Amino acid sequence: MTKEKRLKKRHNAEKRFRFYGLASIFLALLFVLILVQNIFSKGSSAFMKTAINVTVFYDPELLGVKNGATKDEILEADFFDITIDTLLKTFPTNNLDEENQLIDLFTTDAELEIKNALINNSNLLGKTVSLEITSSDDIDQLHKGNYPRDLPEERRRISNFQLSIYDNFLENKKIIKNFNNYFFKNGDSRDPEIAGIGGALVGSFYSILICLLLSFPIAVLASIYLEEFAPKNKITDFIEININNLAAVPSIVYGLLALQILLATIQLPRSTPLVAGITLALMTLPRIIIPCRASLKAVPPSIREGALAVGASKFQSVFHHVVPLALPGTLSGTIIGLAQALGETAPLILIGMVAFVVDIPSTPIDPSSSLPVQVYLWSESAERGFVEKTSATIMMLLSFLIVMNFLAVYLRQKFEKRWN
Amino acid sequence: MSDIKIKSKNLNVYYGNKQALFDVNLDLNEKEVTALIGPSGCGKSTFIRCINRMNDVIDICKVTGNIEIDGIEINSKELDVVSLRERVGMVFQKPNPFPKSIYDNISYGPKIHGKGESKNELDEIVENSLRKAALWEEVKDRLNEPGTGLSGGQQQRLCIARAISVNPEVILMDEPCSALDPIATAKIEELIDELKKTYTIVIVTHSMAQAVRVSQKTGFFHLGKLIEVGKTEKIFKNPDNKMTQDYITGRFG
Q: Are B210 and B177 in contact (CB under 8 A)?
């Protein structure tokens, strides 16, 4: 082969390599973009909810309380009649079926909303006020344009009569969109319009907190011991190999382990953040030990020798010099381990966190859901309203993960010491 | 003639199955500079690392024989290695300041040994150590800046100051100038000349010229054996051993 030919061949090979590299990066970015776009377009509407403006007369007679009743008396009162009365007044109906259809336009929690408005301001008793009552999921989806209204009536969940009411409300500007605070503060519900991730958020928070409290100290101490103090022999080699193996064990296996030991043997309460936290800690431990050991190993031996040479004991040289220098790497490894734990679903399903829990847990031993399990639960639900809620929950989960990963990078770059 | 400070008797060192030192018998005089020369891997560094038991850190390293400092055996199990290292300081081949401020680099040793209870005492120790290491004038205005920000030669003097800070009796130097330029090297050599008034110094060096310049006594190692030891002048002008002769004239090594 001539010199020119070889040169040309080499240049072509370099060009080809550049092309492959750029193409794969482009492809990866494209997929990320499609994913994000898909989630955003589906999920962003979940942060708004549709409400219908109604006029309520807080009739003391209908409520069965005296004028000037105390808060306790209002809490005791029955708001069913007043709710039906209020909702039926919004549109003229001719028979019971139409009445039911009209009431179905509003959330099942309409009674609670009317009650809460009075509890928050007991001066309203005996007065007529206008209130925004959350609409039913079907109207919400229709108003957001997620529901096709050109289907034949028998295949629609919204009847022609309900559509005409909706159009009438729209014309009279009674339909409002406002911020969906239910999504953040409510627990799960069968009704999408009042379902929220409040319970899942608190459950995830408790789980990750317990996971952090258990796994961080154990992992850091284990890695310090293994890296700095343990003799290098067959036993420590064996331990090291098995830590690496444990980090690769599928998470569902930890779920099975927790099911057998924590739930069946120790009888800890099922579906609770406590069990979830312990399970996630077991899973996260090796995943934190590995980066911890790596960052301890990255501290140059000359630092250890320098400390020993001025008469520091082994213990002092490790805790005064090596550990502080390894801390940024240790912390970022921990945060990334926790981020993985935050997104973990399979082991939580096994320990019963997949149960339908309406109440927001107040302690780590209350039954609860968690963010990824909530995604799983809602993605299986039939109602249209849960589609956007699934995506919105994914958005929340992703934003937590992004924040945590940023924190990890920031900590590492800010506090990492350089040596020559 | 000064007194003998450190005395090694039949010192053998093994790294696993490999023997690194063979029956080394070497006496080091007090307040004198002893230079150890020899080709790479001949055991010079291994020898000085025995004097402050730095080899303890290496799992597979085994030491037999005796080393006495002031007539006291240091290889015994009862001896607290920390108090030994307080008496025998060490400066390494590559400057290894802690990634902390200049002040903290020097004050660390005194702090862990309970010297310098008050801030004033510590300040004094830091200043004295830096003065003795001929670094004070250069860094007195930036004691709170990181020690790793200094130049290579300054870093090495910082490490010498750090070794001095705990007021040792012996200072071991393992090729302290091999990573430095000639100007920085000259400064360190001047410093060694000054320090030998107070401390017993053992220096490992690859530079024959340096050994001649700084030391009063020289030991020549080859393949783990101490070939010849004597007054520096004699070793370099009129060695007894043929191998020493060949090495110092550059025929091998």
A: yes
